[in-house]
Amino acid sequence: MKRQAIRSETEWFRLDSDEADWAAEDPADLARWMEQLLVIRRFEEKILELHGQGLIHGPAHASIGQEAGAVGAMSILDSGDKINGTHRAHHQILAKLLNHATPAGYDPRHDAPVPEAGALVQGAMAEIMGLRTGFCGGRGGSMHMRHAESGVVGSSAIIGGNVPHAVGYGLADKVLGRDQISVVFFGDGTLMAGQTLEAINLAALYTLPVIFFLENNFYAVSTHVKEQTRETRLTGRGAMFGVPSIECDGMDVLAVRRAMQWAAETIRSKGGPVFIEAVCYRFLHQSGPLLGSQLGYRSKEEEAEWRARDPLVTMPERLRSMGVLDDAGLAALESRARAVVENAAAALTETDPGANAPRVRPGLYPKPEEVDHGIRGDLSELRSETFREAASVPAEAAREMKYIDAIAATLLRNMERDPRIVVIGEDIHRLRGGVSGSTRGVMERFPERVFATPICENGFTGMALGAALCGLRPVVDIMFGDFTIVAADQMFNGIGKFAHMFGGGFGIPLVVRARVNPGAGYGSQHSMDPSAIFAMYPGWRIVSPSTPHDYVGLMNAALRCEDPVLVIEHQDLFQTSGPVPQDLDYCVELGKARTARPGSACTVLTYAAMVRASEEAAAETGIDAEIIDLRTLDPRGLDWAAVEASIRRTNRVLIAEQTARGTSHGARLAQEVQERCFDWLDAEILRVSGSEAAPVVSKPLNMAALADTAKVAAGMRRLLA
How much is the CA Rg of the chain, to the nearest whole Å? Predict the structure, then answer.
């Protein structure tokens, strides 16, 4: 037996700073980094104090002990370079804010404090306290912070959730030709999450300018890294994907700075990404002021060893020995740091005469009635568009088109129109337009804007979110509707909550196309219409077109909209045909229903493939049903004016859906119809839907699990009995 060792050809090394590194730096920069360390530490201490006084609602995840990594990392970034972090990101955000506000040549040994820096410190504190003057109006708090002007695109409290976003930032930079770098910060616990590894692989696959910055503080809450993985050389996770990887001392500002400089140079000379592991230590527990030893999962001896390496101890000693700062100079920096933090707190709190405890100043809390503001935009971006309904198009101006051809033609036309549109998904680059033909012609015309991904829905959907936040308009192709659940974290914790969580006022122009294929015998995991799940998250707009004309118009509107839109593409409709205008540059209004069949006996609320089934049921039964094709399905966008007007005429309602009863829109629709239209109802609201079960492979059971013409006809007869 012959064995040959396999070695990685990917660069993978440990980097440490030496005396020459320190001597090479400008003393003014060294003093500035020292000041930043002090501001961050005093800020974190103040946050814990405010939390103990009951002035912070929610957790306070302090980064005390880890400041050097943030200061060193941010020292090489410009305001245009983007970052995000996790639930423990105060130090990174503050370092980015301070660098954004600090003018070139600033030397804290001689120059006055920068007012803008103080204002940003106050804004960060206000956000953590949940105040309206915070960066996100108090919506995000400690764990979700965004300040786009300084390059803080938005942190995430979901472990691993933020990592694909930074890959999207890098994708946008690459497609749009920007010379910028994105850095994603995360911990050893996050490295064990699947979407983190998906993100690293995607960045490597597309050679994106992203630095994966791992803060290895050895503990995921109380679980030591040795309890998380057998391979504790964590940089190996980068090398295994072909990503150059560096381990460095995260308690040493200069070691981190050198690692970041090497990473940036590598990205700009060879292409990214790069993986950095900064070995560091959080001095306190996961959140709050207690020590890990007080909770029994760390020893006092271990904590003391790391305390001896505190950057606020070691760096002053080094700067004294170098002659950069003496005791008086260090004391002056300490005084300045405390002043900026205390001034921020004083602007946000007050203590009544005779009282012992401070309180938030009156008027700084958000108004309760603003709780739903910022969920999504007002569609003002569509006001100048041309809207056309099929009935208004003269026959001579229309052509007959198959539904599946409308899908491909609309995507191709929009990519011709808007260079920001990119397509992301599995197998979209081959098979003559993907597995369903819906991307036909796109790869041939725009290969540089087609990103055919590995099987990693959570990873590439998160990448799309990051890209949408940084200038692109991604179209995410989900092969089967059920697979949106694989990407549930990014679909719902990410895209569905993002705008509201960060205070609104910015767009997330992203379209998710989900193919629904319930009757083809693919079984329970490939047959779902997921739109009712998306309806639970009001940040999403949802459309489900039933005709080629409506598909073109609704997709055009979706690709011009600043909000995320789910577009349901029902395979039962793919081979159906209908008239479409010769000129495809028109929109169908989001939030506007279509009367597919006028009538007076009852109102049928339906969508997608069930529109035709309902029309057939009306013909079969002879019942004069008014069939409303809802088209828009999200609760905040439903056309209640059209629905209510119909119900007032017919006084009876049937809700017809093909999908399983438990994952349909019907229960919500029925409740709201009753609340809005109770006085006009002459009968109970009936629901026709699929069975309780999802479809399975056996053909008779597959068909039994779905609603059809016969079931709608039976429902009509019952309603009119």
Answer: 29
Q: So where are the chain's domains?
A: 12-351, 380-581, 594-720
Sheet holding 245-249, edge to edge: 12-15, 245-249, 274-279, 210-216, 182-187, 82-84
Q: Does domain 380-581 have CATH number 3.40.50.970?
A: yes
Q: How far apart are CA 148 and CA 50, in angstroms?
A: 26
CB 598 within 8 A of CB 626: yes
- Mean per-residue pLDDT for 613-628? 98
Asked if residue 549 has pLDDT above 90, the reply is yes
647 Cβ neighbours under 8 A, 6+ residues apart = 603, 653, 673, 677, 680, 681
Give, in words, the CATH class of 12-351: alpha beta
Question: Tokens 């590598």 map to which residue?
Answer: 266
For residue 649, give both structure tokens.
């005429």
Average pLDDT, integer, range 308-323: 97
**Residue range 594-720 in CATH 3.40.50.920:** yes
Active site residue 373: no
Residue 492 CA: distances (Å) to CA of 463, 536, 564, 609 = 14, 9, 11, 26
Q: What Cα–Cα distance (Å) separates residue 462 from each residue in 424, 472, 487, 491, 510?
A: 11, 13, 8, 8, 11
12-351 and 380-581 agree in CATH topology: yes
Predicted TM-score (pTM) of the model is 0.96
List the catalytic residue out of 100, 526, 549, 665: 526
359-377: average pLDDT: 95
Q: Where are the alpha helices (DSSP H) in 297-349?
A: 300-307, 311-322, 327-348
- C-alpha 87/C-alpha 441 separation (Å) is 43
Cα–Cα distance, 222 to 654 (Å, whole number): 54
DSSP H stretches of helix in 559-691: 609-621, 640-650, 666-677
Give tens-digit pLDDT for 562-603: 999 999 999 999 999 999 999 999 999 999 999 999 999 999
Share of the chain above pLDDT 90, in %: 95
Nearest CA-CA partner of 532 in 457, 583, 481, 573: 481
Over 90: is that where the pLDDT of 511 sits?
yes
Q: Write down the pLDDT at residue 38.
A: 98
